[in-house]
TrEMBL record, chain A:
GO function term, MF aspect, one: 4 iron, 4 sulfur cluster binding
Family statement: Belongs to the complex I 51 kDa subunit family.
Record's keyword annotation contains Iron: yes
Superkingdom of origin: Bacteria
Gene3D superfamilies documented for this protein: 3.10.20.600, 3.30.70.20, 6.10.250.1450, Glutaredoxin, NADH-quinone oxidoreductase subunit E, NADH-ubiquinone oxidoreductase 51kDa subunit, NADH-ubiquinone oxidoreductase 51kDa subunit, iron-sulphur binding domain
UniProt entry keywords in alphabetical sequence: 4Fe-4S, Iron, Iron-sulfur, Metal-binding
CDD domains (alphabetical): TRX_Fd_family, TRX_Fd_NuoE
Name of the featured protein: 4Fe-4S ferredoxin-type domain-containing protein
PANTHER family recorded: NADH-QUINONE OXIDOREDUCTASE SUBUNIT F
Domain 4Fe-4S ferredoxin-type span(s) in chain numbering: 728-756, 757-784
UniProtKB/TrEMBL annotation, chain B:
Stretches assigned to the 2Fe-2S ferredoxin-type domain: 1-78
Recorded GO MF terms: iron-sulfur cluster binding; oxidoreductase activity
SUPFAM superfamilies linked to this entry: 2Fe-2S ferredoxin-like (SSF54292), 4Fe-4S ferredoxins (SSF54862), Nucleotide-binding domain (SSF51971)
Species whose genome carries this gene: Sunxiuqinia dokdonensis
Residues annotated as transmembrane: none
PANTHER family in the record: FAD_NAD(P)-BINDING DOMAIN-CONTAINING PROTEIN, GLUTAMATE SYNTHASE [NADPH] SMALL CHAIN
Record-given protein name: 2Fe-2S ferredoxin-type domain-containing protein
């Protein structure tokens, strides 16, 4: 036995001692091994089989099922390019390709020749407002573009080995984020002279070393105040200046920013700004969480909102239990411990609360079903396996309101007489896991979790189960299979979990957000909750608003609010003054709602009617530049990848639909393909075993329904938005000033370096990476 | 107890009974593939979908428990369409041939790989039996056939085609040398068939009709049987080979009338005296004009699937339809028309010669040669050293037969995917948009072969090896479309199946896990 293998074996022994030697310890064991080795060495897996009840079949099936696990040795550092929906529409695919080129990776290669970096796509990091996002080990870079690959890596390498506190979230050019100035470029703003103001700002900051991002935003809606200038300083404070004149610019800037060199001193200030995690572009990292009161700027963002799951947002320190209590935290728990549990269930039922995970099953009814079951054990699971690309509600709730979720779980557990609880949290959310872990420790100390809670005869403990990367595990039967140490294969229902769930015991599974709304209902009474919303959809819904919207972020709105209100009033409209085209609701299971249905109210019924569904609550705004066929293709490639592979319709059906969409987006589609696409969409919906497959065709069905002419255009050989690379060519027009920037950027020398001359693109060599267009200072690069 | 109705029949079943079990107690058949009694349900293939008419929902009957008040339909258009759709999806990723390309190319559809295996194993009696199921004149064709089968032979891609034609001739010669036992039909049907013409087509039809127990009479204008074959040179086709093969056929209950020219009047008479008439006259050159038979540009007009002419009970085959130099086609048509007529006698209906569903994947990729060579030998193609007219020696034949790649599936009869594709009219090519999976073959003791590209991921082998606590067993590997069934830690199939090899091969619903020596088509 070599020394290396011996080392592995003793390491594995340690892991097993910690995690246990039963089947249910399998995923935690694999996670621990991968933590150690960066991949799963076969010797380690064999040794697990030799010393536990886990079989080779079991371990191989599980290790190869979850995307978190790697069977091949990875590079020293891991680069994860987020390809979630928000990142996708902002060019994540091209960013990924740029990294691939940088490391000279071909085909399926993932690791560079030196073994320094391994490049991976990841389905969603839940930082949608920073899109496109790239993570290098634990450092997250936002707004990454194809030409920023070098600077991201340079910055990362400059950080490697450095000790001490470092900012975990950085701008793509590697600089510490010093501030941002936003100038409205809506039509009113431009008309009132915002262009001149912009030039003045550029001149003012030049040479001062102040690292500012100057950003154009669309109409903020306050057109009577134009031009508007919003300044976000390094303390993440935002201030809005109305009716700005060019000669006021210098004063404004110096009010907020000091030339470089003083930064460190300033950084010692406590960070205080309300929406750093929750609004566009200023999310500065989740490990700093102090709060300030909003000013005017965010009021429009907040006015339309109604925080229940996110109650006291911007005020609560996530782990400060006293603070949570001071806002009435755990009052609901105390109260229900004195109440008949049937009354609690009735209250939840009467509140009209429906499951927030997507399907919208009446929560109280679910509780009642579990309560009625007689069993020696009952389980309760908080479903935090938010796999939707483009959604991060669960992450936000778990990170920011851990006690509220726990309280909701405790109330439910008491009502249904559950004995054991689980947090099932996605692997990609390490901070949520850390927070919940600490929150549970705090709760145990305070006798809120564990034996005889608050002196009652009610005992209930909660443990954390980390998912390992499988979207399908959001499906409750697959989720339970995963906790039991199996591949996340869904099974047919009935039996429903309420009857026969985890290890055959009655099990209550609710979504994180559902639990987060429970304490409000108990504290304020069911009618307070049911007054909010529409006839069939009560209360509020949390959404992550992302994509081409000015103010993306986590929002909580009353049911019945229209899409237009969300996008225009809360989101501040479409970015860069572009035309609103559609909003993608509900992720891979949802659909695209077009501009013609802008006034559709958000509730379970209305969304189904237009072909979408609530899903878990991702709202991705698409503008005129987004190709709807490409969007459909994007979601199909996601579901195809995430299909568990069990039933024929989902495993092969999603693949064949993707094949057809690939043909169409590469200009090879035919009329017949459209017919077959409809046929497959119909049968995948009707024939699949679980809801992943049944809802997988929704993005296709809705885009076919509302954007049929775009499909037709592709079949005729045109991509109207120029997104489908196989169907477009790049060229340079007469605006070219011969600055050579494009030639310098071109990774394949398709543009000849000719200073002061008009450049041109050699279309034979061009790989359509878009680097030239992005870098051109005069918009001379055209895509046709 | 639970009350429900299935296909309008009420039934009461204990709680926990699946819809499939309930239907089966009513003798209602629902197809399944991934289901295997005693291993728990898995719900993967989805060919067992049935509909609850109360809400129109489709559900997998193999695992859905019967529930109070259900009103189930198992076989309406929607259920059938769902099965066709799932089969077409499964077929789109199923890489394998039900029958070998050579057999599909052969106009007589002869089971070539099976013949090759039997010759290679020295089982020459069985080999000729297999040949004669499809080819009535193998000794003759073994010398004169242009062998379209060899154009289809996969071995041609690797080096050169297998000498199929010579092997067939060899088998026939073996039998002729020993002396052919005259055909003894099990029972006489009492039906009479007149065959006009004793060329390859007529003789073949006579051979199979006689074998099926019908009274056959041949009318031949020449003084002896053979037709166009007599134009072939002695050096290619020695007369004694011909005579031996003809007399082997005619040396039975078949009646022959030589030197009889059949005219229109005689034909009408034969129609009345017989239950069926077969025109195997050879090229007709217009002499049937005015007989009341529809003619096409090339000859007698027939229904391509049944060989029926425009006249009731009169069939036509061979060069009478279209002049061709391909005797093997005429011989094949003789077999097919005999089958059609036999079925007609039995069912009173003229039905097409059955064509079965065939999964096909076309050419091998270069990297796949090695997979197919695992079951073959790396030897050069042999020709008959004694000349084609004499044929292979025993050693040559055995050596050449071993060069066969055995492209055919080993479970052509028991494969449920094939059976259901036939029943539901599934089209394999419909959803084949992308590159196919690569063919891989792994052999294990007890004549086990595992071909992952044929796997439909039903998981039966995974469940069986789990149940029998194999050390390694099979496991699902990966997920989504790329999920594979394989052996953990890249161990061998042999290691995976220490206890369950035979069982797993038997239960696999396709030919993915099979025994190479089952020879289902020999039974």
């Amino acid at each position: 036995m070599t020394e290396e293998i011996q080392q592995i074996i003793s390491q594995v022994d340690k892991v097993i001692q910690q995690k246990g030697n039963t089947k249910k310890a399998l995923i935690p064991i694999l996670q621990a091994i991968q933590d150690e080795y960066n991949y799963l060495p076969e010797e380690a897996l064999r040794h697990v089989c030799d010393t536990t009840e886990i079989t080779p079949e079991n371990i191989t099936g599980v290790a190869s099922f979850y995307s978190q696990f790697r069977m091949k040795k990875a590079g020293q550092h891991l680069i994860k390019v987020c390809v979630g929906t928000a990142c996708h529409v902002k060019g994540a695919g091209q960013v990924y390709d740029a990294f691939k080129r940088h490391f000279n990776l071909t085909g399926d290669e993932e690791t560079d020749a030196e073994g320094n970096y391994t490049l991976e796509k990841v389905s969603c990091l839940g930082c949608c407002t920073l899109a496109p996002v790239v993570q290098v080990d634990d450092v997250t870079y936002g707004h990454v573009t194809t030409d920023k690959v070098d600077s991201v890596l340079q910055d990362f390498e400059s950080q490697v080995g450095k000790t001490g506190k470092k900012s975990k979230y950085r701008n793509a050019d590697g600089s510490e984020f010093q501030g941002e100035i936003r100038i409205g470029l809506g039509s009113c703003c431009v008309a009132s002279g915002s262009d001149e103001v912009k030039k003045e700002i550029e001149q003012t900051i030049e040479g001062t070393g102040i690292n500012l991002q100057l950003k154009n935003v669309g109409c903020v809606g306050m057109c009577h105040q134009v031009p508007l200038v919003e300044v976000i300083d390094e303390n993440k404070k935002s201030k809005l200046y109305a009716k700005v004149k060019p000669n006021e610019v210098a004063d404004i800037i110096h009010e907020h920013f000091k030339p470089k060199g003083l930064i460190d001193r300033l950084r010692s200030n406590t960070f205080h700004w309300l929406e750093k995690m929750q609004t566009d572009t200023v999310w500065e990292g989740v490990d700093r969480y102090a709060i300030d009161v909003r000013d005017e700027m965010v009021s429009s963002f907040l006015d339309r909102q109604l925080p229940i799951a996110t109650e006291h947002r911007g005020v609560l320190n996530p782990l400060d239990m006293d603070e949570y209590r001071s806002f009435g935290g755990f009052d609901a728990l105390k109260r229900i411990l004195q109440t008949d549990r049937h009354d609690v269930i009735r209250m939840v039922k009467d509140s009209g609360l429906r499951g927030r995970g997507g399907a919208g099953f009446l929560t109280g009814l679910k509780w009642e079903l579990v309560e009625k079951e007689k069993a020696e054990k009952k389980y309760l699971i908080c479903n935090g396996d938010e796999g939707d690309p483009g959604a991060f509600m669960d992450r936000m709730l778990l990170e920011s309101y851990p006690y509220r979720v726990i309280e909701g779980m405790l109330i439910a557990a008491w009502a249904v007489q559950a004995t054991d609880g689980y947090f099932y949290i996605r692997a990609e959310y390490p901070l949520a896991v850390t927070r919940i872990r600490q929150a549970l420790i705090n709760c145990r100390e305070q006798n809120l979790v564990g034996k005889n809670i608050l002196g009652s005869d009610f005992s209930f403990d909660i443990q954390i189960y980390e998912g390992a990367g499988a979207f399908v595990c959001g499906e409750e039967t697959a989720l339970m299979a995963s906790i039991e140490g199996n591949r996340g294969f869904p099974t047919i229902r009935p039996p429903f979990p309420a009857h026969k769930g985890l290890w055959g015991f009655p099990t209550l599974i609710n979504n994180t957000e559902t639990f987060a709304q429970v304490s409000y209902i108990i504290r304020n009474g069911e009618s307070r909750f049911s007054e909010i919303g529409t006839e069939n959809s009560k209360g509020t819904k949390v959404f992550s608003l992302t994509g081409k919207v000015n103010r993306g972020g986590l929002i909580e709105v009353p049911m019945g609010i229209t899409i237009r209100q969300i996008v225009e009033e809360i989101g501040g409209g479409v970015q860069n003054g572009k035309q609103f085209k559609a909003v993608q609701v509900g992720g891979p299971s949802g659909g695209c709602i077009p501009a013609s249905l802008y006034d559709t109210p958000i509730d379970y019924h209305s969304l189904l009617e237009v072909g979408a569904m609530m899903g878990s609550g991702g709202l991705v705004v698409l503008d005129e530049d987004d190709c709807m066929v490409d969007i459909a293709r994007y979601f199909l490639s996601f579901t195809q990848n995430e299909s568990c592979g069990k039933c024929t319709f989902c495993r092969v059906g999603t693949k064949r639909m993707l094949d057809i969409l690939n043909r169409i987006t590469s200009g090879k589609g035919t009329k017949k393909d459209l017919e077959e696409l409809k046929y497959l969409a119909e049968w995948t919906r009707k024939g699949s075993l679980c809801n992943l497959g049944k809802s997988a065709p929704n993005p296709i069905v809705t885009t076919l329904r509302y954007f049929y002419e775009e499909y037709e255009a592709h079949i005729e050989g045109r991509c109207p938005t120029g997104k489908c690379t196989a169907m477009i060519t790049y060229s340079i027009n007469d605006e070219c000033i011969g600055c050579t920037k494009c030639a310098q950027k071109c990774p394949v020398d398709a543009i000849k370096f000719e200073p002061h001359k008009k450049h041109s693109v050699n279309t034979e060599l061009c790989i359509k990476c878009d680097a030239c267009r992005q870098v051109c200072p005069v918009d001379a690069v055209e895509v046709v | 107890m639970i009350k429900l109705t299935i296909n309008s029949q009420p039934i009461t079943v204990p709680e926990g009974t699946t819809l499939l079990e309930a239907a089966r107690t009513l003798q209602i058949d629902i197809p399944t593939m991934c289901h295997l009694e005693g291993t728990g349900h898995f719900t993967s293939c989805m060919v067992c979908l049935v509909k609850d008419t109360r809400n129109g929902r489709l559900m997998a009957s193999c695992s859905m428990p019967a529930m109070e008040g259900m009103n189930i339909i198992t076989d309406d258009d929607e259920c059938r369409e769902s099965r066709k759709a799932s089969l077409e999806l499964l077929l789109s990723e199923h890489v394998g041939d039900c029958e070998a390309p050579c057999q599909l190319v052969c106009p007589a559809h002869m089971n070539i790989p099976l013949m090759n295996r039997l010759i290679a194993a020295g089982n020459h009696d069985k080999a000729i039996e297999v040949v004669k199921r499809d080819i009535a004149l193998p000794a003759i064709l073994g010398r004169i056939c242009p062998a379209p089968c060899e154009a289809g032979c996969r071995r041609k891609q690797v080096d050169e085609a297998v000498s199929i034609c010579l092997l067939k001739g060899f088998s026939a010669d073996q039998e002729l040398e020993k002396g052919v036992t005259p055909v003894q039909p099990k029972e006489q049907s009492g039906k009479k068939v007149a065959i006009i013409g004793a060329g390859p087509a007529g003789l073949a039809a006579a051979f199979y009709l006689n074998k099926a127990g019908h009274q056959v009479t041949i009318f031949e204008k020449n003084e002896k049987a053979g037709g166009d074959l007599f134009q072939i040179e002695e050096s290619v086709l020695p007369a004694k080979v011909m005579e031996a093969e003809f007399s082997a056929i005619l040396n039975s209950d078949i009646k022959t009338h030589f030197n009889v020219e059949v005219d229109q009047q005689r034909l009408e008479q034969l129609q009345q005296e017989n239950d069926a008439v077969v025109l195997a006259t050879g090229a007709i050159n217009g002499q049937l004009k005015g007989w009341g038979i529809s003619l096409s540009k090339t000859g007698v007009e027939v229904n391509k699937d049944t060989y029926q002419t425009s006249i009731d009970k009169v069939f036509a085959i061979g060069n009478a339809l279209r002049s061709s130099k391909l005797a093997v086609r005429s011989v094949g048509q003789g077999k097919e028309v005999a089958f059609v007529i036999d079925q007609y006698f039995k069912t009173k209906e003229v039905k097409p010669y059955p064509s079965r569903f065939n999964s096909k994947f076309g050419k091998l990729q270069e990297t796949e040669f090695v997979e197919y060579l695992k079951e073959s030998v790396d030897e050069k193609r042999l020709e008959a050293t004694r000349g084609k007219a004499v044929g292979f020696t025993m050693e040559e034949a055995v050596a050449e037969a071993k060069r066969c790649l055995h492209c055919d599936c080993r479970n052509p009869e028991s494969c449920k995917l094939r059976e259901l594709s036939d029943i539901y009219g599934a089209q394999q090519k419909r959803f084949q948009y992308d590159e196919r999976f690569k063919v891989e073959k792994e052999f294990a003791p007890q004549n086990i072969v595992y071909e992952s590209a044929k796997c439909i991921k039903c998981g039966i082998c995974v469940r069986i090896t789990q149940q029998y606590q194999e050390t390694f067993g099979f496991s699902f590997i990966g997920r989504g479309f790329d999920v594979k069934v394989g052996v953990p830690f890249s161990e061998s199939v042999e290691k995976a199946l220490e206890k369950t090899a035979a069982l797993v091969a038997e239960k696999c619903p396709t030919g993915a896990l099979a025994k190479t020596n089952t020879e289902e088509q020999l039974k």
